[in-house]
Design goal:
Length: 319
């Protein structure tokens, strides 16, 4: 089923129902969407509205603080992996104008003595706002659970074991990114937009709500399709790591956040993507089942960690 914007809508409760027919319907619909436009809207995703509302409340409090307070949490030397990244720091690959946004990063919470915890920076606590980290952690776990279920369905669509991704995403390098696109006042650099056209780096991205319009997806006809937040749904798209693993069978679709119309220039926009990353040692070598005469192997062998570093340099988060 499609919603009015042409982004297919699927119901995760079908996959979790235990009914084989309903599960297969979900797998088929998700697979078709990801081989087509690369984006899908998911309902019954298990992330409570109450938690989403709490996260938005906490974001608005943090981004409303004075610059001096926010900049206390801009941690040097870690490429923005945790804490605060100021306005205009990140840019789209191949662009020089900084995106018109500021954001915060929550990362993995390793709680089982897994040695991988030593590879990750600590999450950052805001002394003026102790609830931010608490709500961030609860949200991170809820997104991670939803993402795990979706990857189980993706594995089955690809003819893999249902649990194929589980070991790779356990304590993976995922990022929850609350974003604030401030009101646009005065002159802006030529070519600067809220988020330049780009593809995501990770396996899949789960996006909850957005307080204003602006997200657009490039479809197969090379047309920009607007995606507004759909009540009770999250939007989930394929990232470049999954496209690479599947030798382009699943599509990592170009998307952007455009600047608002003149009458809305004075308004903020907030959104929260969860970038679901595997552990850095996961291999992204193209799956043999996705390679044939018509689709020869398109990518060199690489690990997720090597690929991530390459891409972070391209977008300016690591120099």
């Amino acid at each position: 089923m499609s919603n009015p914007q042409g982004i297919p809508s699927v119901d995760l409760s079908e996959f979790l129902s235990g009914d084989k027919k309903a599960q297969q319907k979900f797998i088929d619909e998700l697979g078709a969407a990801y081989e087509g436009i690369g984006f899908v809207a998911v309902k019954n995703h298990g992330i409570s509205q109450e938690l989403i509302d709490e996260l938005y409340d906490q974001m608005k409090i943090f981004f409303g603080q004075d610059e001096a307070i926010k900049n206390k949490y801009n941690i040097p030397g870690i490429g923005g992996q945790r804490g605060y990244t100021p306005f205009g720091t990140e840019h789209a690959k191949g662009k020089t104008a900084g995106d018109l946004k500021e954001f915060w990063h929550f990362g993995q919470f390793v709680e089982d003595n897994d040695p991988i915890g030593e590879q990750y920076p600590e999450n950052v606590s805001v002394e003026e706002q102790p609830e931010f980290l608490k709500v961030g952690k609860a949200s991170y776990k809820a997104f991670e659970d939803a993402g795990r279920h979706l990857l189980r369905a993706i594995a089955l669509h690809l003819g893999l074991e249902e649990t194929y991704f589980n070991e790779h995403i356990h304590n993976g390098n995922s990022i929850l990114r609350p974003i604030h696109y401030p009101p646009i006042t005065g002159e802006i650099e030529e070519g600067a937009v809220r988020a330049g056209e780009h593809e995501d780096i990770n396996l899949i991205t789960l996006l909850v709500g957005a307080s204003a319009d602006g997200l657009q997806v490039l479809n197969k006809q090379n047309e920009w399709v607007s995606v507004t937040s759909i009540e009770d749904h999250i939007v989930v798209n394929v990232g470049d790591m999954l496209q690479r693993l599947t030798n382009n069978k699943l599509k990592s679709t170009t998307h952007r956040v455009i600047n608002p119309s003149k009458e809305n220039l004075g308004t903020s926009r907030y959104s929260v993507p969860f970038f679901l990353h595997p552990r850095s040692d996961m291999r992204l070598d193209c799956l043999p089942s996705c390679i044939d005469e018509e689709n020869p192997k398109a990518y060199e062998d690489i690990t997720a960690g090597e690929y991530l570093m390459q891409r972070l340099r391209e977008i300016g988060l690591i120099k």
